[in-house]
Hints:
Structural class: alpha+beta
Strand order of the largest sheet: 1-2-3-4
Amino acid sequence: MDSSSTSFFEFIAIGLLLVYLFGKLLGFRRRVRGKSGKRAFSSHKASKGNAQRLAPTEKQIALVDAMRKEGLLSDLEKRMMPANQSRSFYSYLIDRHTEEHDKLAAEHEEAPKHQEASATVDSSGDQRKWLDLDHLPPVDELPIDQRTGLFSKREHAFYEVLHRACGKQGLTVCPKVRLMDILDVKTNNPDENAVWFRTLAQLHIDFMILGKSDRFLFGIELDDSTHGTDEARKKDNLKDCCFMKAGIPLFRCQKIMNDEEMNEWLDKRRLIAEARRELHT
């Protein structure tokens, strides 16, 4: 074999070797790029998962705890909390119950203002007991505005179940009834009469249950964390005593029941109320 043939075969061999080496290099780069892409994707998924599992902030914990004490959280939400200590779940609870929480907070802020207003003294030195109906301000200057609703969310949930149960038993449920629409004050002293009237006129019970011919059967108070204050306990005690003296049972409830539970609860209270009425008469 001459030298020209040898050079030709050497050239072919070198070319094949270069193609082989180039292919190996290209495959290596693809493998490296694939691994780095997988690592980046895994890192992205991990960061997204970590964001979802971020612990709730101190403000979120405090606000949700306040909502729980106010009785705003459902039983299901309270059962879910231990296993869902995440910022996203606490945000869900806050968004769901903020409106009702703000309403309760506003009512608590208004209470001292009403107490202060009731103690205002006029120029004669006597306490102002009523508005001066002869000198009312113009309508657009009246300090009057519409409330957001008759019920809180919790009260509305209780009312719906109670209303269905009362309908099945032929009873009528009346919400937000003033004590002075149920009770009567009888003393021999007009001033004492006025004091009792003004006090009871500012109080109401959550629900009044009427029997046949609209006779008072019993009252219901839906208690929550707001009933734990000293002032609330005093008012609750006054209501209990007044209803006891009038011979009308007043039952207290802390739970939002389903239809079956409410039917059973209502039936037992109705029997107790009817038995007490017989004893009172």
